[in-house]
Amino acid sequence: MGRRLSGPSARTRDAQPLPLSTQHNSSLTNDRNNSVSQHDELIHFVSGSWNVIIQEYENGLQGNNGRFHIQFYEEKGGHTDKLKGFKPFDLEAWWGKQTFQRYQQRS
Q1: Phi, psi of 67 (to 5 degrees)
Q2: Can you tell me the distance from the alpha carbon of 17 to that of 27, in angstroms, rounded to the nearest whole number?
Q3: C-alpha dihedral (99, 100, 105, 107), degrees to nearest 10
Q4: Cut 0.85: pTM above it
Q5: Which residues of the chain have pLDDT under 70?
Q6: Which residues contact 68 (CB under 8 A, 6 or more apart)?
Q7: What is the pLDDT of residue 68?
Q8: Dist. CA 65–CA 60, nearest whole Å
Q9: What is the Cβ-side half-sphere exposure of residue 43, based on CA atoms within 13 angstroms?
Q10: d(CA 107, CA 103)
Q11: 26, 8 in Cβ contact below 8 A?
């Protein structure tokens, strides 16, 4: 976390301003490119982490005296109190509304 992205999306954010006629569409494209690269980075991180866990688990099954480098933790009960006031919401719809509001403010 707190890591600055590199690559095309980071370079386009720091680029010189474009002519007024193309600046609006370019900013939307840059936002999309940035979110796609962040999404790809998150997918790569989760996938890589999961593959390490699976490999550790399989190595533990094949020997290594049944010892794992990764400890698995499962919480038994007690978590229902923590979720008493939780109200789920549609994150995709919320994100869409935010994007739409930004789009309207720019035009």
Answers
A1: -95, 135
A2: 10
A3: 110
A4: no
A5: 1-33, 62-72, 77-80
A6: 56, 57, 60
A7: 59
A8: 7
A9: 6
A10: 7
A11: no
Distances (CA, A) of 41 to 11, 13, 17, 36: 17, 18, 27, 9
What are the distances in angstroms from CA 27 to CA 32, 51, 53, 102? 9, 36, 39, 11
- Rounded distance, CA 94 to CA 76, Å? 32
User: Token pair 């789009």 is at which residue?
Assistant: 103
pLDDT in tens, 61-86: 766 665 656 666 777 766 667 777 88
| Chain center to CA of 92 | 13
Instruction: Tell me the C-alpha distance between 30 and 13, whole Å.
Output: 7
